[in-house]
Inverse folding.
């Protein structure tokens, strides 16, 4: 199955389960969890179902394309279901069928793996799903997001698209995966990956990133005061990415790193609180 | 009498929870049944990744009947002048559900009162159980629970179904968003339909037909069996180390073994690297061929029986070969630097705030190790090995391999040292110096390795105590208890004659140039010495030594080996019939000797009574007896791993004890016939000095005054 067909199949499958198929957000994020459609929508009581491809940036994970599994840029396929359905594991296994994977022909396990995002003030419990020993999906019941206890609880599914494609196409390296007929992932990403690794590790301007972080942080804080939630949250995401670049550049001491994490976390928590205030106010207005 | 079954069906539980909940659910059930006074027979519990179940045999249908007298108002208040019940009495009767005419009058401690006789009990099990089982579910302990959907009862993972049967009857339990029925679920992939349970007794059999082995130990045995059989087909044996089998069997409901292989070329890697790579992430069983060497095959345990094993194998092998390729990369990359170069990287790894980096820690440790070498009188050759090892001790912490697989610390230092051409003794010391790195891991088997292991732990313990991080209550976030236990075990197994205080002082000397204040260091020294001795006592208690003997043996805070030998000597002696006489003897002498002035020696010239003469004459023989007992303990009790008991019990103590007991007759006679507290001060002091000698001779065995109750 082609890489793009995996995406199309998952879109079709989750759309049929009532999910909104959201399109990728146009700001750098470390994971699909940062998307407003997960981070913000998991807050509050309203039901919500969405699925989307989340191109993700993890500057420190880059390996210049040498490691078949580790990249600074890759795709997650993200599903968020609120409240978590009682049969979510069954639904997930059904989604594997749609990719041509028959769970009865494999050794599929749900192995404990808990998740925490210090910058988002979020944590959850769940599993990594292993197929024949290989991790293919992260499965998390969010307990807290933005420092707020959730009710109802959302469940997040994150498919590792490249890994699943490598398996389905029997390829040893992500770059060898056929994305579209005659076009491999390597064709699309090899130079992009290499140059970004070189930039992240060797050429990024650390001083500039520090200044950017400070600027993004104060802009986010200013906009939160103005209750301009969505623009504010964009600057939170940008600040988080600036921090990730500093981290990859290896210029942060342990203590400094912790301090940056705390700064992003404070912004995330204020964002979450503001979102709830605004949506409660909107509902009250509607009711009136 | 009926059988009760309660099953909590869940989404996949973490493997660490399996054994904990198996124990907890049985004990909590017993507690709950006792609280409502429901009699019952045996309680069994069953756990798989998808269920927690408890089965109670012979549950009584009703709670036993019993009467209870409840006290009401005083008689004077309860009846009016005409003998009719007052308002107070009527109210009391109503509150207790009896007629006023049934109230009885009895005398209590302060006059007469009215009492209501209540008939209690007789409650039906079937009525008590719904609430009881719901509480059982919500009260099951776990370090971390979660919520899901909009259910308010947290559990370790979402609850998918409940099953509750009293024999054939469903119990209406409602909990965690589920209502109990008689339906259970079989294996997620292998069962074709749900399990409809007719009777609580059928639980295990019905599940087995649905490919679920619910009994934890049966599942573990079956897992081992299928793994061994699969290995045997290729003339291979399993490498089954540590908790691998347990963990594997906790992650599945039905085990199916599959044989996989990897490229022979990887066999050049150190054996531990291969074994750890297979077991750590993948939980595969490594295998050995008939010649004992690691074979390029592994046994994976699948939780599913599939049409084509080759599909599973392809996945397992692909993941493993990815990990082995990583391991090969680390092995090559790490060896491109020398250990001495890796050691420089320790300056970039923090040890603990206020205590500096790993490099600073290792510099302190090196000093402590040298002090220990002096105290122990190490040979020149041993010192040379120590110096070479100390220079690169724990350097592997900054290698990529240990960063990825921390449990290989020490093992990698050995492997890299050998590859670099270090002498074999040095490489071995580098490996043994970090032992035991897990509670179940072996202790250092070479003396110089033990010196490093002891110096390392002393540095950590003393440092953490000095910055106020000593464990309190059951909280021990830095694992200091574990370190002190390891320290005690190493010291006993090495049999070093150094007291705990001497050791702690040695470590403190190395902290002298640090930022720690002399006061905090001073306080830490004595606290740590006591903390360590408490761990020694704890390990000896695990060997079955009674607490009084422990206190006696800890006299003067001796070396660990001295304390442990004293314990076993006293324990063996206390089994002998004459032990009581011996203690009596000690007590009489010790009571009088309290009056004695220090530093006055016995002067036989001053003896005025034959009983003095004969007691004095027997002393050397008694002392020889005690010396014999102590040397027997030393010879028979070779240093051992504390907590495991010595390999051979003490024996042959009779002669020694008899020699000591020969003191009894002359001492009795002395105390009966000689007046100690005479007017003449010289004579009095001489007699007291004689008794002091008797006491001190016996006290060589330990603080015997602790044993008076025995």
């Amino acid at each position: 199955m082609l890489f793009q067909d995996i995406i199309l199949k998952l879109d079709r499958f989750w759309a049929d389960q009532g999910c909104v198929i959201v399109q990728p957000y146009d700001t750098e994020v470390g994971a699909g969890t940062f998307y407003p459609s997960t981070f913000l929508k998991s807050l509050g009581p309203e039901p919500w179902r969405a699925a989307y491809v989340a191109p993700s940036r993890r500057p420190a994970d880059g390996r210049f394309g040498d490691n078949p599994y580790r990249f600074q840029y890759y795709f997650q396929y993200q599903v968020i279901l609120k409240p978590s359905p009682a049969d979510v594991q069954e639904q997930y296994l059904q989604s594997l069928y749609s990719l041509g994977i028959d769970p009865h022909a494999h050794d599929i396990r749900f192995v404990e793996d808990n998740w925490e995002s210090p910058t988002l003030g979020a944590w959850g419990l769940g599993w990594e799903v292993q197929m024949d020993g290989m991790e293919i999906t992260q499965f998390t019941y969010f307990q807290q997001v933005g420092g707020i206890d959730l009710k109802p609880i959302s469940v997040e599914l994150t498919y590792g698209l490249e890994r699943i494609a490598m398996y389905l196409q029997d390829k040893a390296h992500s770059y060898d995966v056929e994305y579209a007929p005659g076009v491999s992932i390597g064709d699309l990403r090899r130079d992009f990956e290499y140059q970004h690794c070189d930039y992240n590790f060797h050429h990024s301007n650390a001083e500039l990133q520090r200044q950017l972080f400070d600027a993004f942080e104060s802009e986010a804080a200013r906009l939160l005061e103005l209750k301009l939630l969505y623009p504010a949250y964009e600057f939170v995401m940008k600040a988080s990415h600036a921090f990730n670049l500093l981290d990859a550049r290896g210029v942060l001491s342990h203590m400094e790193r912790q301090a940056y994490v705390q700064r992003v976390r404070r912004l995330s928590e204020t964002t979450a609180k503001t979102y709830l205030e605004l949506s409660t106010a909107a509902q009250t207005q509607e009711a009136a | 009498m009926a059988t009760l079954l309660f099953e909590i069906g869940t989404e996949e539980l973490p493997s660490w929870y399996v054994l904990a909940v198996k124990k907890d659910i049985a004990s909590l059930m017993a507690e709950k049944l006792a609280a409502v006074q429901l009699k019952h027979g045996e309680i069994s519990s069953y756990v798989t990744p998808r269920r927690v179940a408890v089965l109670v045999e012979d549950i009584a249908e009703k709670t036993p009947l019993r009467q209870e007298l409840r006290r009401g108002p005083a008689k004077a208040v309860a009846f009016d002048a005409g003998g009719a019940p007052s308002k107070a009495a009527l109210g009391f009767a109503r509150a207790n559900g009896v007629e006023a005419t049934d109230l009885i009058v009895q005398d209590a401690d302060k006059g007469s009162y009215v009492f209501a006789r209540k008939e209690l009990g007789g409650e039906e099990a079937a009525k008590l159980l719904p609430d009881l089982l719901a509480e059982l579910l919500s009260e099951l302990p776990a370090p971390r629970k979660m919520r899901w959907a909009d259910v308010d009862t947290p559990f370790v993972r979402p609850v998918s179904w409940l099953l509750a049967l009293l024999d054939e009857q469903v119990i209406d339990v409602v909990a965690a968003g589920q209502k109990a029925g008689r339906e259970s679920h079989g294996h997620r992939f292998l069962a074709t339909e749900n399990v409809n349970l007719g009777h609580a007794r059928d639980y295990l059999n019905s599940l087995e037909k649905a490919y679920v082995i619910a009994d934890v130990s049966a599942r573990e045995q079956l897992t081992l069996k299928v793994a061994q059989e699969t290995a045997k087909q290729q003339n291979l044996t399993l490498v089954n180390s540590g908790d691998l089998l347990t963990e594997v069997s906790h992650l599945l409901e039905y085990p199916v073994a599959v044989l996989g292989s990897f490229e022979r070329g990887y066999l050049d890697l150190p054996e531990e690297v291969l074994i750890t790579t297979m077991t750590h992430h993948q939980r595969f069983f490594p295998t050995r061929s008939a010649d004992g060497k690691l074979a390029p095959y592994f046994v994976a345990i699948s939780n599913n029986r599939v049409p084509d094993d080759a599909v599973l194998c392809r996945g397992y092998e692909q993941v493993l070969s990815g990990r082995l390729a990583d391991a090969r990369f680390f092995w090559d990359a790490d060896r491109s630097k020398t250990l001495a170069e890796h050691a420089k990287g320790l300056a970039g790894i923090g040890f603990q705030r206020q205590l500096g980096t790993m490099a600073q820690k290792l510099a302190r440790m090196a000093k402590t190790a040298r002090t220990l070498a002096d105290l122990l009188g190490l040979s020149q050759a041993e010192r040379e090995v120590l110096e070479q090892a100390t220079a690169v001790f724990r350097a592997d912490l900054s290698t990529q391999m240990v960063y990825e697989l921390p449990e290989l610390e020490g093992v990698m230092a050995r492997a890299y040292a050998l590859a670099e051409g270090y002498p074999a003794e040095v490489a071995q010391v580098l490996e043994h110096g970090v032992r035991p790195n897990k509670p179940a891991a072996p202790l250092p088997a070479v003396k110089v390795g033990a010196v490093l292991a002891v110096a390392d732990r002393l540095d950590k313990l003393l440092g953490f105590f000095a910055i106020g991080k000593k464990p309190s209550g059951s909280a021990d976030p830095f694992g200091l208890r574990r370190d002190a236990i390891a320290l005690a075990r190493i010291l006993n197994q090495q049999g070093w004659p150094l007291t705990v205080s001497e050791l702690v002082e040695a470590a403190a000397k190395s902290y002298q140039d640090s930022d720690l204040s002399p006061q905090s260091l001073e306080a830490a020294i004595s606290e740590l010495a006591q903390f360590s001795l408490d761990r020694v006592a704890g390990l000896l208690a695990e060997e079955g030594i009674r607490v009084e003997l422990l206190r006696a043996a800890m006299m003067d805070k001796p070396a660990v080996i001295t304390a442990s030998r004293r314990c076993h000597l006293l324990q063996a002696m206390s089994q002998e019939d004459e032990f009581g006489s011996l203690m009596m003897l000690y007590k009489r002498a010790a009571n009088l000797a309290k009056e004695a002035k220090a530093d006055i020696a016995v002067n036989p010239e001053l003896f005025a009574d034959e009983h003095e003469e004969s007691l004095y004459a027997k002393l050397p023989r008694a002392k020889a007896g005690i010396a014999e007992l102590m040397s027997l303990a030393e010879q028979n009790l070779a240093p051992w791993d504390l907590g495991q008991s010595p390999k051979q019990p003490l024996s042959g103590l009779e002669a020694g004890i008899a020699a000591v007991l020969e003191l009894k007759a002359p001492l009795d006679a002395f105390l009966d016939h000689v007046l100690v507290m005479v007017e003449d001060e010289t004579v009095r002091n001489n007699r007291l000095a004689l008794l002091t000698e008797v006491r001190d001779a016996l006290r060589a065995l330990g603080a015997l005054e602790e044993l008076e109750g025995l």
Q: What stands out?
A: Chain B touches chain A at residues 11-16, 49, 144, 146-150, 157-158, 160, 189, 251-252, 282, 284, 300, 302-304, 306-308, 311-312, 314-316, 318-320, 322, 350 (CB under 8 Å). Chain B has a mean pLDDT of 92.
